[in-house]
Each structure stands twice: as C-alpha cells, then as structure tokens.
C-alpha cells in the first residue's frame, strides 16, 4: 500500500511539473486603461496631482508627464506594446510637441504632433522593444508602470497641451507563472486518477488472493 501511495504521489508531482513546464514560454497579452482620471501627473505650472478630466492646456514644459502603475497583468515581461490615447492641443501653429512612451522607466518609443492643426489628437502607436520584466508592486505581482513624458517645451505665450483619460495600453509578452492555474487543476485530476489506479490495483490483489 505504501508503495502504491508513493507511486500515486510521484505521479501527481510529475504531472504538475510537466504542466508547469508546458506553460513556460507561452505568449500572452494584457490590456489596461491608461491614462485614467487617477493617473499621476507632473505639471510644471501647478505642480503634481492627478489627471482628472484632462483635456486642458495646462502642460507646456519638458519633463511634464502622466504615469500610472498596474498590477496582476499576468505577464512576466513585455516585448511589444500598443498605445491608444488622445491629447488636447492648444499650442500655436508651427509648434512641434514631442514625447516619449516608457514602460518601467524604459523608453519604448516616441511620438509628436504639430500645434495649431487640431484641438485634439488621437494616437494609435505600436512599439517593439527588448524584453522589459514585470515586478511586484503594492498593487500585486506582474506589475508595470507606464509613462508619457514631454521631451520638448512650448515657448512662453504659445499655449499648452494635456492628456485625455480613456486610453488603452496593450502589452504582449511572456505569460507569468502567477497567471497559470492549470497545474493545480491538473494536480487534483492527477491525484484522483492515480488514487483510482491504486484502488483498482488493491482490488485486483484481493480477487487474486
């Protein structure tokens, strides 16, 4: 009986290990809303705060940014990202406004717009980059923080710009072990299957005795 039980436990362990290994290297995606009304902003005019309704012309300085952290994305890292968001523009014609997009402080791409063309600009940006690992934050494991930061300044008396909440960032990368419940489910199934095998074996021994 002890040998049979040991065999069952070994069976469970092997199946769980196999299931976990089969999940390693699986590609996955995760989408989060960014920027949001609660996103942190650095404002050269009024100081730090949250984005709120956005859509103003409050920002004009290099280094102004909007940023937010998201946890439990289910990704161990990200190798590409899609950024969809809008900005308001009250800068004068001829002003070129430039920005960087960052993940965990790493610049993954850039974008720009010319002033005076429209009072709002919609962006749909796709960036491919070297793997950027997630980390554990106060919001949970598999966290990333996203930043949109100005890399240019608007000359004095030439207006300003702002971000508008309601955007989306979609990440593609390697799935995290934290997001994979299958091994546990398989463990239950495997234990039942192995236990059934042990029971059947014992019954056969009784019949043959």
TrEMBL record:
Domain Ice-binding protein C-terminal: 179-205
Membrane-spanning residues: 184-201
Key words of the record: Membrane, Signal, Transmembrane, Transmembrane helix
Signal peptide: 1-24
Name of protein: PEP-CTERM motif protein
Organism of origin: Rubripirellula tenax
